[in-house]
Amino acid sequence: MIVSRRWLEALLGRPLDAAAVAECLTMHTAAVDTVTPIHQDLRDVLVARVLEVKRHPNADRLTLCLVDAGPGRGGPVEVVCGAPNVQAGKTYPYAPVGAVLPGGVTLERKKIRGVESNGMLCSARELGLGEDHAGILELETDAAPGTRLLDAVPLGDHQIAIDVPANRPDLLCHKGVARELAAVLGGTVKLPPIPGAGGAAPAGGDAALGGLRRAPSAREGGAARAAEPGVAAGPSGPAIVGAVDGVEVRLEDPEGAPRYMIAVIRGVTVAPSPRWLADRLSSVGQRPINNVVDATNYVLFELNQPLHAFDLAKLRGPAVVVRRARAREKIVTLDGVERTLTAEMTAICDAERPTIVAGVMGSSESEVSEGTRDLVLECAYFQPTRIRRTRRALELSSESSYRFERGIDLLGMPDALRRAVELITAVAGGELREPPLDLWPQPVQEKTIFLRPEGVSRLLGIAVERSEIERLLSSVGFFVAPKDDRLAVQVPGWRPDVTREVDLVEEVARLRGYDAFPDELRPYRPGTVPDAPVERAKSHMREQLARAGFFEARTVPLGPPDGPEAVAVVNPISSEETHLRTRLLPGLVRRVEHNWANRNRDIRLFEIGTAFRWTAGETGGKGLPEERTRVAAVLTGARHPPHWREGAKVPDMDLWDLKHHFELAVGLACPAARVQVAAGKTGWEAVTATGEAVGWAGALQADAPVWAAPLFGLEVDLAAESGVGAPLAYRPLPVHPPVERDLALVLPAGVTAVAVADVLRRAAGALLERVEVFDEYQGPGIPTGHRSVAWHCTFRDPARTLREQEVEQALERALRSLEDELGVRRRAG
Amino acid sequence: MRDLLAAIDALRERLQEVPQADDRRLQDLKTEVLGRKGGALTKILAAVPKLAPAERKAAGAAANALKREFEEAFAAHERTLKAGAGVARELDLTMPGRAQWRGGLHLVTQVVDEICEIFHELGFTRAVGPEAETERYNFTALNFPKDHPAMDAQDSFYLGGDVLLRTHTSPVQIRTLERYPPPIRVVIPGQVYRRDPFDASHSPVFEQIEGLAVDEGITFVDFKATLTAFARRFFTADTRVRFRPSFFPFTEPSAEMDVQCQICKGTGCATCKQTGWMEILGSGMVHPAVLENCGLDSERYTGFAWGMGPHRIAMTRHGIPDIRLLFESDMRFLAQFAGGTR
Ligand SMILES: [Zn+2]
């Protein structure tokens, strides 16, 4: 919402500082996004009086003017002028040499037809103040020559852009914003008199602002209602009908339009708006159209009441029918687009067809045009939800729909309509022959909320005096009356957001100023919620992987489907991101490719995040998808950074690096799972005691450049419980020396290292503390198909020193079993 | 006898040579002094038994003492040489040292941890919940009116029916209030989703941290104090903070917290759009309707809640111009913050 500083000044009757306004609104009402000075590009332009007009010696169409441009110029200056309307004794805008004009051009001293011109007298167009460039702009000002134009003429203004929250429709107009300023800065809000409207400001000022009691219902104080409307049967049930100045009005959809007012103004002359009105609208960025439309827009921005004026002559009947639209009914809206309506929408029709999509946009047919003489002026309250759905269905927003959606002041409508009638008759002529018709089948009054003063202190944490509460609430239009030990607070119609006691507490807090509250830490009781175990598990896993040389990645969990159980997004934003991930690795591979594209060869990334899938029975629509926290890592490139001592070439990471990281990750993420060779020997998998595969590691396919190293990846479920295991118990350090033996074994094809180690451990017994592979060999001396694997065995008895003989016996047992069970022998020699 | 003692003394002089020796010279010295064949001290020790018995004891003691002195000197100097491993004149010590690959946590994770850690000190534990939620948890229970603009399907990813990817971590507030009795003090980190295509400042998914405190007697002052304490810890102790009115369906009163712009220190710059302030979090007192929706007596319990975006906070605090940098996972970017955020 953009408001004009000058417009606010007119409502408050006092000058305002734009920065102070912004600060006040931000701290008490709603954030101000920007404050933009307008017409600041005229800062160099001065007021000047033409003293004498002479003919230009070398050109018939030019004149030579002697101009008083103020003191400090060594007397009057000579200016060449081409305007036909220049007259001695009048004042005009004058740009001296060196002035920067709108558009950024610097005015230079130059000769025009042989005569030097000391600056320029300006037209409206040259100053960006209008389209007129037939002559220079004649000023009506008493300001002394040399005064800055911006100081002499009310042109300078500020546009203040307010970020109005969805619950504060009252801030969508100047009066509402002025009301907030008055509450905090002091002062009262009064509608400024309309030039030419004969007399003082119309009634309908904000009575509550003066602390006066508002009439309980605006009905009585508002515009007189025409003859009591009757009820008649309409096509969609009982209709409320009435007539005003020969126009029949039928309200057939009171649900969509709970209150509907019509005024008929006859004899208007549609023409361009007077300057003051056009300027007002321009100051908030609105393009002036004609006096009638501009008048309705003026009331919109002044009072937040959308109005619609249409041409009575174009109205068949003449009748105004407010009804639900019929399915597939068509209307060509003002923007020239044909729209198809549905029965969910409210339409304003004449005797035959729709002329307005209620609350959203009118049709080009019924639009006010130059030839319009008689006006039908609609002032309505449309049901916010209805308008929102209509706007969404038609994908059509307007200033009106924006306001109706948020809820306008149902009780302020008569005042707004009266203001509009007064404005239209002032700027376009015409007369109101009958009071407006007000169809309001179920009138409502201001709601009353009871406020307990101690409740205010209880929530805000500081004592707030009862009188202070009353003062603050009254300052923005609430009517407060004591009721027993409580306060009965009447909520003005423009505050639909205030519905319960706590809303009033917020009013007290914000008007007082949040900054006025202390910020001392007070004692609190510890909470009952334990730390989420999965968070600790994630944190621990992250640290371990970072320590192992991996960087944490954060990827978008959306991508192409990667399995039949992938969860589809009903309304994706791109064709590449249609499903939630079931695994993390594909996303990480895309990140590897991104790094390759940046010529990065050594890549180690990990991610911990959520994977989604539909489980049996939950295939969308019912219940939530299953979510698992998973950890995945990818690795490719050199095993460690190169160092000059070893030369530039560092071996690339291979499957064995991967296996190490996988075992590490599984040990942390799923301590109960076992790492085994995956089916088909594509890599490894982690399997739980129940046989569920919870992890996988192996080589990955990717779109790799030729210089890239092989890419490997691992992924495993991260069990939340892994973060909360029992504390580890200390195991005593050995005090007796070990006996160590190296054992070279010849393994026939098909015998695995893990099988050998198992037999070794079992057969050698408890004395065998550790067994580790340290070499593998195939070649001369080993039978074809066989391989030699060398093991380092450590024997130890924790309680005593071992004798060599015991070790020899254990080894012998082991070798016998190896030969018997696996055909494995000790390598000869 | 006198010759022998003189030889011992002469040899002792050579102890001074030990600390000056380099690797090779040290080996030579050892041979020269203690060598099995022809070592000076070996010879002396061999000569001791040949002395008269009366003299033997003194000469032997002296020789053995010297032997110990040499052994200790050799050992000490060997250690020194080893420690300096090659610290000798011909090495260029400006050559690079030997490195290992270093990994690190994502900047956003570090920011999340920092934030949660500060709140941990203020008594808040971590709570989490599902990323796919029902409209009830994501909207209705949080007092979003029907037809609220935020419930526009345009803005959320739907998975079918009334299931959507949560648009904030607030559903976990509801789940926590349903499951645990007050007092409640939790922070809720997690990923949230909005239907925004990627651009410099938007991402369809981003991190959020919400917080919730509910108990008897919690007031607006507690709320302001807690968040102010957080801001001063997270930024700097002298950081200025301001609270201003805002609107959220699930809080009343609602507030936005700004902190003094960290770039210009409040004087106004391009980052803060010349305001001198940076918007950090949305917050307020828990709306009584939210408590009631969770079965709590809103006359008895009050509370406060807030929410903030670690991605955006990371960007403002560290001057990151484009949110996509936080998702691209470029190793060069990740390495910049691998050692921490300061
Ligand atoms: Zn700044």
Description of the structure:
The complex is a heterodimer of chains A (829) and B (342). Chain A is an alpha+beta fold. Chain A has six domains: 67 residues, 2-Layer Sandwich (Phenylalanyl-tRNA Synthetase, Chain B, domain 1); 112 residues, Beta Barrel (OB fold (Dihydrolipoamide Acetyltransferase, E2P)), CATH 2.40.50.140; 222 residues, Phenylalanyl-trna Synthetase, Chain B, domain 3 (Phenylalanyl-tRNA Synthetase, Chain B, domain 3, 3-Layer(bba) Sandwich); 69 residues, Phenylalanyl-tRNA Synthetase, Chain B, domain 1 (2-Layer Sandwich); 191 residues, Bira Bifunctional Protein, Domain 2 (BirA Bifunctional Protein, domain 2); 88 residues, 2-Layer Sandwich (Alpha-Beta Plaits), CATH 3.30.70. Chain A contains 18 helices and 40 strands. Chain A is elongated, with a radius of gyration of 42 Å. About 4% of the residues of chain A have low confidence. By secondary structure, chain B is an alpha+beta fold. Chain B folds into two domains: 90 residues; 228 residues, BirA Bifunctional Protein, domain 2 (2-Layer Sandwich). Chain B is 40% helix and 19% strand. Chain B has 13 helices and ten strands. In chain B, the strands form two sheets. Chain B has a seven-stranded mixed β-sheet, with helices on both faces. A three-stranded antiparallel β-sheet of chain B has the order 2-4-3. The longest helix of chain B is centred in the first third of the chain and has 31 residues. Chain B is elongated and about 115 Å long. The mean pLDDT of chain B is 90. Classes of the chains: A alpha+beta (829), B alpha+beta (342). The complex binds zinc ion.
